[in-house]
Specification:
globular; alpha+beta; Deoxyribonuclease I, Chain A; Swc5/CFDP1/2; 2 helices
Length: 118
Amino acid sequence: DKEKYKLFWNGQKTAKNGVGIFVREPLALKVLDIKRINSRFMWIKLCLEKQTMIILSAYEPQTGESEKIKTDFWAAFSDTISTISKFETILIGGNLNGYVGKKTDGFDNVHGGFGYRE
């Protein structure tokens, strides 16, 4: 028996940008809400037994995009995160176009033990 999945997607028809979240079929029935913020950022809210979980999918503008596009992305990201209740679990997935390097500045547990820049 093959498992079935449901795709929650948001993007542009030009296929330049887009984000999505695949959810296994039985779990898809537990989706309470979907927020499609823009073609680079969306989230779904799931009810899982005794907790509510927000799963975010984000695609930060890559090198070569304007500073305005990057600033708008991070403003939408920050605004959205700030609206989520502290009682909800948040899982962030996607491509945030970050850097991995030597510095950790005391955030070893945040970067998975890896640092950023030099």
